[in-house]
Amino acid sequence: MKLNVNLAGVELKNPVMTASGTFGSGMEYSDFLDLSSLGAVVTKGVSNVPWSGNPTPRIAEVTGGMLNAIGLQNPGMDVFCERDLPFLKQYNTKVIVNVCGKTTEDYLAVVERLADEPADLLEINISCPNVKEGGIAFGQNPKSAEAITAAVKKVAKQPVIMKLSPNVTDITEMARAVEAGGADVISLINTLTGMKFDIHRRTFAIANQTAGLSGPAIKPVAVRMVYQTVRAVKVPVIGMGGIRTAEDAVEFLMAGATAVSVGTANFEDPCATLKVIQGIEEYMERHGFQDAAEIRLAE
Amino acid sequence: MKKFQETAVILSQEQIGEDIYSLWIQTKEIAKEAVPGQFISVYCRDASRMLPRPISICELDKEQGRLRMVYRVAGAGTAEFAGYKAGEELKVMGPLGNGFPLKAKKALLIGGGIGVPPMLELAKQLPGEKTLVMGYRSETYLEPELAAAAPLYIATEDGSKGTSGNVLDAIRANGLTAEVLYACGPTPMLRALKAYAEERGMEAWISLEERMACGIGACLACVCRSKDVDEHTHVKNKRICKEGPVFNAQEVEL
Questions:
Q1: Considering only CB atoms, which chain B residues are within 8 Å of A57?
Q2: Cis omega before residue B36 (within 30°)?
């Protein structure tokens, strides 16, 4: 049975990876699972300098998911390259580094710093709803999205994944824009912007007021957007948004995703990714599929 | 320290105060490994509530591998826990975080509100001279167990028992002194105790609380402001679930 998939020339042993921000750089999860079992580890967003993130409370649970406004707290590219990348390279898995920034120059600084580092792919985060500058500003305007993609592609040594925001009117317009900019792969969806009130304390549940909704609650939106995107572009698509079980992952693969990411479910069960991989294999067996690509629906 | 994902068995469940419940569970490894001040992640059965609830460890029976959690019903998740019966299973992960350092010094153990429970196992394990000061709004809970572990002073906000006021009022009213403070409770209480300890040059260990998602240091939801740069992000944000929940009071800014 062929579980491996190809993303812009990079071969993953299976189509299951982690979603950025839900898995750190894998270190905390290595207590629970062998990272070498994963198709890839997608790191938490890395910026050019350390970011402190947002004030607390940063999260709140909601029915079928959670809201977060962590604000991309991260140690910056130097610590990341000296500590986190060498840690990840001990494992036989692909490393996808999520890159965040406030300005085009910020993004390019990280992409250039990573040029000679052992990162297999870069995922450019133009869709975080929780930082005031940059991030989402590039992800909601097709012209800006195309421009940042082209700028990144010019300096990147690794294939580039552009991660899209669902907080747009027409996802296919954004997908076509980053493809025109030269994106090698598209990943989606990032979180949906939400809000929650604490009715007892009579205040916002999250200090940042608005926050990103993730978890099973957003899965149908994500499946629909992946389906539309797959049909709008030629590059491979990584699907994510509320995947908790293999059955959820299979829906994204049916919609046409080449690979999938497990996000919020890692908080519920550190071994969620392993269960998804195993379940996909079982699904393929039941249906007599020899290749993960056969899961995709023809229409 | 090793963390375990386990399906524990509920041995007993009892309501011991207004919205306060006591649950003894049988674990395989967690109780054997745990130390006072650590916590466990407790998972809901209702799949629409994805995130574990971080619950402090109140008591340990290491020989039998049993663990007691005393928790307050604060929302739908803990309300679900309150409905569980003896014999049922409970998904847990732990032990998590760092516990209180056990010092052989004259100690004051201070708990406020739902910060009371972790002080019980700490009182049982601390080797030196120790005194407990517990603050409640009105009704007390865990009083017999605490009194059996160490001399116990009580403060109530409504004056219905012990000193009228907060834990610091009780410390002053009873002329209590110590070389080291251990505390768990609401932030205003911890802030006051941190200042109290600093004025007197006392050592103080405080247990902090914040909303958590993963409980293992990955999501960066539960950070607190720290005096020095933290080991993870190299900013001034320590992770309560990983570097805490117990901190030297001088390390953190409240």
A1: 210-211, 221
A2: no
Give the tens place of pLDDT for each residue, A22-31: 999 999 999 9
- Interface check B254 vs A, CB under 8 A: no
Give me chain A's average pLDDT, please.
Answer: 96
List pLDDT tens digits, range B67-111.
999 999 999 999 999 999 999 999 999 999 999 999 999 999 999
Q: How far is A70 from chain B (nearest CA, A)?
A: 6
- Can you tell me the distance from the alpha carbon of A203 to that of A34, in angstroms, rounded to the nearest whole number? 42
Q: By the 8 A CB rule, do A63 and B48 touch?
A: yes
Sheet with B223-226, edge to edge strand ranges: B237-239, B223-226, B252-253
Whether B232 contacts chain A with CB within 8 A:
yes
Task: Sort B139 into a burial class: Cβ within 10 Å, 0-12 / 13-18 / 19+.
Answer: middle
Average pLDDT of chain B, as a whole number? 97
A128 is catalytic: yes
> How do the domains of chain A map onto residue ranges?
5-54+71-192+214-295
d(CA B133, CA B114): 14
Among the partner residues B2, B51, B234, nearest to A50 by beta-carbon distance: B234
pLDDT of residue A269: 97
- Please name the fold of domain A5-54+71-192+214-295: TIM Barrel (3.20.20)
Query: Looking at residue A127, what is its pLDDT?
Result: 84
Residue among A31, A64, A70 whose CB faces B220 most closely: A70
Q: Tell me: ipTM over 0.85.
A: yes
Using a CB-CB distance cutoff of 8 angstroms, which residues of chain A are in contact with residue B237?
A: 52-53, 73
What pTM was computed for the model?
0.95
